[in-house]
Design a protein that fits this description.
Helices cover 31% and strands 11% of the residues. It has eleven helices and nine strands. The strands form three sheets. Strands 2-1-3-7-9 form a five-stranded parallel sheet, with helices on both faces. Strands 4-8 form a two-stranded antiparallel ribbon. Helix 3 (55-61) packs across helix 8 (195-208). The chain is globular. 46% of the residues are buried. Residues 17-22 have low confidence and may be disordered. Residues 225-302 form the Cytochrome-c3 hydrogenase C-terminal domain. Its main location: other.
Length: 309
């Protein structure tokens, strides 16, 4: 029998997990039980993709504990994901509409990619009906978002516009929470999102039938609690005034474009690709991709950032 954990203990595990003891490894019994219940009839997941690169889907596919095979085939009730599913065209859209109606008010809507609003959403079509009417991402979000129990914006593009919403932004890309106002929207920042942050949030929502505590940008506080600078392994260089002149040099990377002093995330703890590495450990400056200011106000990517002054 799997031991039940309290909400307090769940949050403690989420905020304390490191790359050495991964979040999903620590929570695996809870994840398996909770998502298995979802597969047996609890709220399913519908995943829409807008203006983006599918990088957040790729990031999720890299989850290892539990494996993505177990998540997709044995555990999670993923009803629609146009990159992963076999059907296409009107058949796929009909199934999407059928699932949204069947589970109205119950399903979690996951959105990946920004929402194009210019020209009535005409810059991003994601589906087609049997009478060959094109469905824009903007229309789909409004329609299916109104039927969802809650909405999760997966990655910086869906959360805040991200790279597709960079200036001059001719397609008018915005984040999901600027469109959906009558449902809870949880923003999972970073480009791409970390699979631990996404699955941890989803498990919390399914287990407690509630959304986790959010910060001022609707990000779960348990995954976005502090700025990266606080836990950066190069922070000691900053305190001693030792600054790198080029990416990869010894020293703090603040003068070569690092935005770790404004980026709220835990990349330094969980790292990426199953705890293999992360930007600063690879010698590259943090670009604050977790923030709503990314990428416009985080420019220049390389060069002294204003927060360093």
């Amino acid at each position: 029998m799997v031991r039940r954990i309290s909400r307090r203990e769940f949050l403690r595990i989420c905020t304390g997990a490191t790359a050495g003891i991964g979040l999903l490894t620590a929570l695996e019994p809870t994840i398996v039980n909770t998502l298995a219940q979802a597969a047996e009839g609890k709220p399913p997941v519908i995943w829409l993709q807008g203006s983006g690169c599918s990088g957040c889907s790729v990031s999720l596919l890299n989850t290892v504990s539990p494996s993505i095979e177990k998540v997709l085939l044995d555990i999670i009730s993923l009803k629609y994901h146009n990159t992963l599913m076999a059907s296409t065209g009107a058949k796929a859209y009909n199934f999407l509409a059928e699932m949204a109606d069947k589970y109205a008010g119950q399903f979690v809507l996951v959105v990946e990619g920004g929402i194009s609003t210019a020209a009535g959403g005409a810059y991003c079509y994601i589906a087609e009906t049997e009478d060959e009417r094109e469905i824009s991402m903007l229309e789909a979000l409004k329609h299916f978002g109104s039927k969802a129990a809650a909405v999760v914006a997966a990655g910086s593009c869906a959360s805040f516009g991200g790279i597709p919403g960079a200036a001059p932004n001719p397609t008018g890309v915005v984040g999901v929470w600027e469109i959906i106002k009558d449902r809870p929207v949880v923003n999972i920042g970073c480009c791409p999102m970390h699979p631990d942050d996404f699955l941890g949030t989803l498990v919390y929502m399914l287990k407690y039938d509630d959304i986790p505590e959010l910060d001022e940008y609707n990000r779960p506080k348990m995954f976005f609690p502090d700025i990266i600078h606080v836990g950066c392994p190069r922070c000691g260089y900053f305190a001693r005034g030792i600054f790198a002149k080029n990416p990869g040099d010894e020293g703090c990377l603040a003068f070569v474009g690092c935005k770790g002093m404004v980026a709220r995330a835990r990349c330094h703890q969980r790292q990426w690709n199953n705890g293999t590495n992360w930007c600063i450990a690879a010698g590259a400056p943090c670009q604050a991709c977790s923030e709503p200011t990314f990428p416009d106000e985080c420019s220049p990517l390389y060069g002294r950032y204003r927060v360093s002054d």
